[in-house]
Amino acid sequence: MPDKKKKTSAKTQSDFIRFMVLTGIGGLVILILTLIIVASTMTKKNSNKIKDEEEFSIEEKTPEESKATGEMEEVIGIITKDVGADTVHILNVENEKEIVLQIENGVEMKDIYGQSMSLREFKIGDMIETKYDKGSKVPKYLRISGEAWEQTRVKNAKINTEGQTVEIGNNIYTYSNNLIALYKGEPISLDQIDPIDELTLRGYKNQVWFIEVTLSHGYINVTASKDEEGMVEIDNGRTLSIQEAKNIAVTEGSHKIVIKKEGYQPIAKNVQVDSMQTVEINLGEMQKKVGKLRVVAKGVSDYKVFVNDIEYPGDETILLEYGDYHLAVKKEGYKDWSKDIKMNEETKRIDIDLQKEEVVEDMPQKQTPGNETSKLGKVSIDTNPSGAEVFIDDNYVGVSPVETKLPYGEHKIAIVKEGYSPLQIPISLNETQKQRSFLFTLQEAMGQ
């Protein structure tokens, strides 16, 4: 029994020690976690305290910096930045110094007509009049200036960036480096403004302070070779040669372009021109005009028509692109007809009279003593103009130009053509002249 009690007591003591050790370890873990949490909390509080001190410092300084002095200043200025919730940045146009106005409740704000405005209605470029406290920068009022000037829908403004001048009509204004220039609310370089642009300008006295491009420009460029001729018409009012139509400035938007070139179908199209972009028009799009040609040989059939040596059946309509061609008509038993023509009509008809070839028998040989027939010589007769009737020794030979053979000796040539004075010319042929050619110039008959 005593041994059993002794063993129970030892076990109880061992369990107690184990419990105390575990409790100690758990307490240590809890203590460490607590210290970590406390340290983190203290750090955050210190950080917030520093931040609060900084903000407090700023808040303390602000009243000192914006402390009202009661000394008021009246200026005319231009708004240089988007207005804030309670601030307006302006530039004094007299001394070009920037002022940041602090807007409080009760500040009078009006447009040029005296109508009330909200702060948000003031925009960059507005010319304003204000009277503000020089210490607090709080204005008594903020008004669109009636002393400043504004010109709208201005075109052909000439901007001289070297001399810093703007010429509008007969008036010349100056500007400074503080000039504000905008397009769609974004800054724009003065070099990008073309005289064709539409502008709004604001200024004070003889100085421009604000330029807004209300309608910008792009370009139209006609691609053509150096020798191409034709005309380009823009918006039914501006006409240029094809060679002049290189990077032509036009206002942004839709424009009607008509291009005309001899022998080609005209191009007519509406193009959309965007700001500072170039619209290219290529003349390769143009198509040649096509006309209908009909050649009629009066009183004959089965003739052939040749256009630039290409054969077509007679009396058939021929489709030809506009241009220059060599035309010929042929029929057996008739003289060939030819002429250079220009195809420049939708429909062209050419009527011709084919002349029959004359079969000229050799002239009868003259009887000479001691020789029943004399030798023959060849004679060519032509006239200017051609087409005259030729008679030799009162015998009809044909229509000039004509050739025949004649006996050597004396002969008489007669030439007759309607509308011209007739000719009678004696000629002589001898055995030393195997061939003779004559060209006679006809004179128009008097009264024709």
TrEMBL record:
* Stretches assigned to the PEGA domain: 247-283, 318-357, 377-436
Alphabetized, the UniProt keywords read: Membrane, Transmembrane, Transmembrane helix
Spell out the InterPro entries in the cross-references. Answer: PEGA
Membrane-crossing ranges are 21-42
PANTHER family attached to this UniProt entry: S-LAYER-LIKE PROTEIN
The protein's name is PEGA domain-containing protein
